[in-house]
Design a protein that fits this description.
Blueprint lengths: L15 H21 L8 H28 L5 H24 L3 H21 L19 H17 L5 E6 L8 E8 L3 E8 L1 H12 L11 H22 L8 E8 L12 E7 L2 E10 L1
Antiparallel strand pairs: 1-5, 2-3, 2-4, 3-6, 5-6
Length: about 290
Amino acid sequence: MEKIELWKDAYRIGNDVIDEQHEELFHRIEKLLVMARSADLEENRKQCEQMLNYLVEYTVFHFNSEEALQNRENYVDYEQHKKIHQEFRNTVIVYQEQIREEFSAAMLKRFLGTLLTWLTVHVQGCDQKIMLNEPIVEQANLPGVEDVVGSVMERLLTGLYGIHITETTTRRYGSELRGSVIIRMILTGEDRHMLLFGLSERLVKILYNKISGLFIQQSDYLDELEQSALIELGDIMASYIMGALMDRKITDYTFSGDIFFSGYSENEFNTNHVIIDAETKYGTLEVLYCRLV
């Protein structure tokens, strides 16, 4: 049987109870992921559904335990952390209902890609701050989009994944992005916003491996697990950027994401929009933000 190991000691936050729960979550995801990628999924449907239900229940149990810890420790960002948990509880429940209606390897992979990416970023970016009593996002006086994007990319790429940004430049949008994979995020609330993230082929592979411990097998094709993981990463990047740019609560918006390949073009943009290019040794991450009419 395929061997997948997702848990890393780097995910430990310094509390034995929470660390054990995190490790258990990753191990459960490992087992379900092996089943989702197996050829005899339908034969093991009952076992798979039982494992899925357990994973969902354990996720909720873990969130409650973590919030209780924060409450006892008078964690400075308890309310914000609790809101983040509640939003993801809702996401997990929606997936659970969808899988009951459409049990398939593709649907399971979409769920696991979302869960795995969210969990790895959340554990490293949010949970690590609990025992240090640090806020999830430190306030910064950043005057413009370029500064906000640069700060967020530095925090995520370098802070979480050790991918250093060697240079950040801006250029006018010329109707297309150059990345091999383009993630488009639409935020809808009282108004609408769009962010595009263009990633070089090598950067996509490196990021996916750092998130999941797995490897993208085909450079010209992403399966449901890989696409879901990258869309969730786009969701997280968009949340960080928009949270810094907007005077409204980011929780008032719904997010929807899509993946495009090689040379995404959007003719409704005009050339006044600016692309921020974050250069790394693995290639470029392009970021474009605009408010939609």
